[in-house]
Amino acid sequence: MPRLLTCRAARRPLALPFEAFAAVALLTMAWPALADAHTFRFVAPPDTETVHLAGSFNGWSSTAEPMERRGDVFEVTLDLADGVHHYKFVVNGDRWVNDSASDRALEVSDGHGGMNSAVLIGLDARTLPEPAPNDILVEAVLHDPGSDARTVDDGWVVWTLRTQADDVERAAVVIGEGADERRVAFEPVREALGFAYYRAEATALSDPAVYRIELIDGEAALTIDTDGEAFTVGTDVEVETPDWARDAVWYQIFAERFRNGDPSNDPGDGEYETLLPWTSDWWETHTRLGEVAGEHNFYEGHGNVWRRRYGGDIQGVMDKLDYLRQLGINAIYFNPVFEAESMHKYDATDFRHIDDNFGVKGDWPVEGETDDPATWTWTPSDRLFLDFLKEAKAKGFKVIIDGVFNHVGQRHYAFQDVLERGQESPYADWFAITDWGDPANHGKPETYGKPGGIQWEAWDQPNGALPAFAKDPSLGLAPGPRQHIFDITSRWMDPNGDGDPSDGVDGWRLDVPGDIPHPFWVDWRVHVKSINPDAYITGEIWGMAQPWLQGDQFDAVMNYQFAMPALDFFADRRDATTPSEFAQRLSEVIYAYPMPVSFVQQNLYASHDTDRFASMFVNPDRQYDGENRLQDTGPHYLTRQPNREERARRNLAVGMQMTFLGAPMIYYGDEAGMWGPDDPSDRMPMLWADLEPYDGQQSRVDRETLRHFQRMIAIRHTEPALRRGLFRPVLTDDTRGVLAFARQLDERRVVVAVNRSGSTHRVALPVGAAEAWVDLADGASTRVVFDAASPTARPVVAVEEDAPRFERDDAGRVTVELDPWGMAVLVPADNESGE
Question: 472, 461, 709, 726: which is closest to 586 by C-alpha?
């Protein structure tokens, strides 16, 4: 008889010796949740005033985790999940420092010439004995039913498992009990640091689903359950996200650089502003227009490039709504549009009003307004924006705006009152003031931020240009700014205050949300959804974002975690990942979150915070968003136009973006072929055909690229499975560089194949039940159709009657020929469109 062994009441499973039996040995384990407390310590140099801990566990926030001073040492203790975590110490708000106690073997590049520190939490596989035949190293096996069995969509469950690498021949999850049970094999996902990771997924047989896990290695077997009883997992998903966001194709607009629709509101009056012609050469110094000669004055010195203004405005976006419609866009994300001095508007002066350079010049400031929303008026600029919302919605667009709720600009009225009146100001508790200074210096600008004057925490640096709101451990933000943010949220979501949100914005993109404690976002979500249950909330989180995406805070994030593996696959050359590794990383990104979240993630490649999408292919083999700023981190960054192969690689990546699970997002101008390094040169004025030719390198719209974007977006609009279907890798050929995956929506199946190589390949693809298939990506046998007469129409793809049909063979495969850097999107020929 097999012997039954049970491990209990241990932080980790006990390492039990295996004894060979004629029969298979069975072991049963109960698993507690796994997390460890870890204390970070920083020995401070004499000039240290503050230290914060920033890392992959808090979205790299420079303010979220303050460390406590204990003599010359700063400390903070966090509960961290098992695995590797990367981090740095942020000293005095602006100096990022490595940890001398870091695990050097696990460090990674920070993209700026340095390294991110690393700490390994939990079992270190480097200390384990080598795998042995007919033996399962119990200590290395990990399945936590609280987190490793997850219902990602109604009735659809995903299980994950960890073992020592090369230690297990096969593993399965056994669903159900008795005669109804069935086995689903675990598939290997990846190997890392001596561990192997597996995933299985299936439709549940009951509610709750009951399961146990079985592992086999030769004559050794291991059963994971709870004291002989099966585990259970509920099959309903508690997380809700806006249904419309699954069908969204997003377009990010930097208003000042998109289109000048009204020259009468152009900036240029301030001493910090230089108005330039829209089509002027970006790299030229325009001395006749007020810029200062000398190469050093471009970024530094006079800072010519930071002072530039081009006059983009709301009217310009309104004028180009039909352009966006014909491109296939149906959702717009605006960078900040509220009153602010800078061109980027992340230094808000007044959240209550649209910037007058975007609307009607000179209609701000407004006299008589207080913190009471009853005193707030609608300026002509505000009303223009509301008119824009009305027209955009009539044309089928959703519109969200940037919520910069962590900080404001120095010219914000509340901060100005604090500088003038010190602790007597009614806004004294709104900001993180570090030193009130001498009251005699209040109101004296020459003392601000200096010894003897008022000093403050800011997002950019101590006493910087972006004063931070004060935080509250239970509310997230201090009561004053918290209420103010709630009020302006109501203002822009329901402008008439009548309970009908149809005339307001459709949601928010949140800037540096990791800098604000979670309690604020929990309460704010409730507030947002009470105004409009269908509103969309997305956040700027660069790392994995599980803490924000469990249904109580955000609906989605800007999915940089999609961009990183995608660029490693499509753009890199020397360090390119394989198709199998790429497929694994994509699956990890999807299944890290509840499926309703993954369906609405903003899948982007570039943004206002990165280099241009096209230039990523000219500058491969870098860490994502690393070494790409000419003025500091990337002096050797190439600013040339991409060549033919680089454009082909980019186009293939666009095809992936439009066929992958989640909502694609395009940064303005990428569809026109714009290229360039990171900020500020990722913010050049948009290319428009009616303004051609432009001065300088980028003189014309790349019409071939524009047509490619439109075609791939049209394919997405044509096929519901590409917007709402589950993702399944079906083929990875690392030798030839081919990846194929299926998107499955109920019985509807679409198969996508990409050829990441410069050679032509014939590929046999496993497909669904249909006998014949057609390729929507074949431009020779399909055409893009757009109904200009319909105000809400988007382009779709129509298949020509004589389009080639691919017949399914007896093995359930169709064979296609993939061009170099080409792709196929196969749909059943008997019903090309799934609509």
Answer: 726
Q: Which of 256, 402, 506, 540 is catalytic?
A: 540
Is 511 a known active-site residue? yes
Active-site pick, 135, 402, 511, 515: 511
Cα separation, 320 vs 694, in Å, equals: 19
The 10 Å Cβ neighbour count of residue 221 is 17
Let me know if 214 is a catalytic residue.
no
Check residue 34 and give its pLDDT. Answer: 53
| Count of beta carbons in the 10 Å neighbourhood of residue 607 | 22
Exposure string (b/e) for 655-673, b if CB count within 10 Å is 16 or more?
Answer: bbbbbbbbbbbbbbbbbbb
Q: What is the pLDDT of residues 363-413, one digit of tens each?
A: 999 999 999 999 999 999 999 999 999 999 999 999 999 999 999 999 999
Of 26, 29, 25, the C-alpha closest to 6 is 29
pTM for the full predicted model: 0.88
Residue whose token pair is 């096969």:
170
**Residues 6 or more apart whose Cβ sits within 8 Å of residue 186:** 159, 161, 170, 171, 172, 173, 198, 199, 200
Tell me phi and psi for residue 250, to 5 degrees: -85, 150
Q: Which of 388, 282, 413 is nearest to 337 (CA)?
A: 388
Task: For the beta carbon of residue 48, count every other beta carbon within 10 angstroms.
Answer: 17
Q: How do beta strands 331-334 and 398-403 pair?
A: parallel
Tokens standing for residue 566:
């995608």
DSSP string, 126-186: GGSPPP-TT---GGG-B--TTTSEEEEETTEEEEEEEEETT--SEEEEEESSGGG-EEEEP
324: number of CA atoms within 13 Å, CB side?
Answer: 32
Residues 239, 715 contacting (CB under 8 angstroms)? no
